[in-house]
Structure formats: C-alpha cells, structure tokens
Amino acid sequence: MQITVHGTQTALLGKEQSVGKEAPAARITKLDGTQNVIGMIAPTVQLLIAIPSLKTEVCSLGAKKFNDLIKEFKKLTTYMITTDDKEFVKEYAAKESIDGAELVIDTDRNFAKKYGLLISEGKLKDRLARAVYVIDRDGVIVYKELVPEIVDEVNYDACIEAVRNAVNVKKKGHTHEEWMSV
C-alpha cells in the first residue's frame, strides 16, 4: 500500500485493513502514560483518526474540525492517534480545547502496524498516514478512508455520515419478541 508525501510515492508498512473486516485490537498510550487497547468489539461505535503530526497546519485543523463535528454523537468513542511526543500532545489538547475525542499516542507503532499506516521512509518515516476508520459495536470496520496525499484532508462529510449510520444501527442479537416467537 502506498500514499504520496508532497507528491513522492511512499510505502506504508503493516497489515492493510478494509471495510467489512474485523478491526484489530491495537495498543496505544494515553496522555496519563497508561496503556489502552482500541479497535475490536466495544460498547460504543469507535472513530479512529490517524494523525501524522499535530504540529502541522492540516493535522491541527483536522483535529479541531473533528472535535466539533463529533460532539453531536453521545454513543461514539473517538480516538485521535498520533506519534507526537506526549508533552506536546498534552499542551495541544489543553490549548485547543480538544474535549470531544481522546488524544492518544502510538508510542511503539502498534496501531500503525496493525492498520497498515506506518510511513516507511522520508522525513515522515515512522509517522502515521492520514486515515479514519469507523468501527461498529460488533468490531467490524464499516468505513475507512486512507488519504492518498498526506497534505490533503479527509472527507469529513462522508466520515460523519458513516458515523451517523453506525451509531443508529441496532446491535445484532435477538430481541425479546424474536425469542417469544420461537
């Protein structure tokens, strides 16, 4: 899998994930230093936003825009994943009032490798490619966008529509009425 970084073809390392597949569990580091696992089955729909670096204008604007867009969803857990250093991310979250999502760090690139987003070369080596994933409550990827050129933004409208659809789907399983009719 490849993207372009300022027009230069750049390979991505890791296992590519696609819509309809089970989302892999990935280990990330929270800003308090504890480890957590994201992806897989969860009580709420998950929105995973891979951010190359909050130090750049496009990434910073994208984080702020997503923070505003997701506030309408009460049954959504959003993670903004970056490889920036913890102190910078803490300061950024406080300064920019990022409160609709949890900013986390892919310290050992576990998320990057499991989702096929690790940039393999150039000045962005070991950073994340820009991507978004919507994972339903059954742990299935229902939406994915890998941005082909690192400096471009994601399709916010399509992503939020996918979130809206996933949040409004009833969890699979039997209902009381189905059980009674057996």
Structure description:
The protein is α+β, with helices and mostly antiparallel strands. It has a domain at 20-105 and 130-168: Glutaredoxin (3-Layer(aba) Sandwich). It contains 5 helices and 10 strands. It has helices at 57-69, 86-95, 110-114, 156-167, 176-180; strands spanning 2-5, 8-13, 26-29, 35-38, 45-50, 76-82, 102-105, 118-119, 131-135, 141-146. The strands form 3 sheets. A 5-stranded mixed beta sheet has the order 7-6-5-9-10. It has a 3-stranded antiparallel beta sheet with strand order 1-2-8, with no helix packed on it. Strands 3-4 form a two-stranded antiparallel ribbon. Helix 2 (86-95) links the parallel strand 6 (76-82) and strand 7. The protein is globular and about 45 Å long. Residues 174-182 have low confidence and may be disordered.
Counting DSSP E segments of at least 2 residues, the number of strands comes to 10
Task: Specify the helix fraction band.
Answer: 10-25%
Kindly provide the radius of gyration, computed on alpha-carbon positions and rounded to a whole number of angstroms.
Answer: 17 Å
Oligomer: single chain
State the CATH topology of one domain: Glutaredoxin
Catalogue the unreliable spans. Answer: 174-182
Shape label: globular
Q: Separation of termini? A: 48 Å
| Order of secondary-structure elements | EEEEEHEHEHEEEHH
- The CATH superfamily name of one domain is Glutaredoxin
Query: What's the tally of helices?
Result: 5
- CATH class of one domain equals Alpha Beta
Structural class: alpha+beta
The assigned CATH architecture of one domain is 3-Layer(aba) Sandwich
Strand order of the largest sheet: 7-6-5-9-10
- Report the biggest beta sheet as strand number plus sense, adding barrel if it closes: 5 strands, mixed
Determine the strand fraction and express it as a percent band: 25-35%
Overall pLDDT metric: 92
Keywords: Disulfide bond, Redox-active center
Pfam families: Redoxin
Protein name: Redoxin family protein
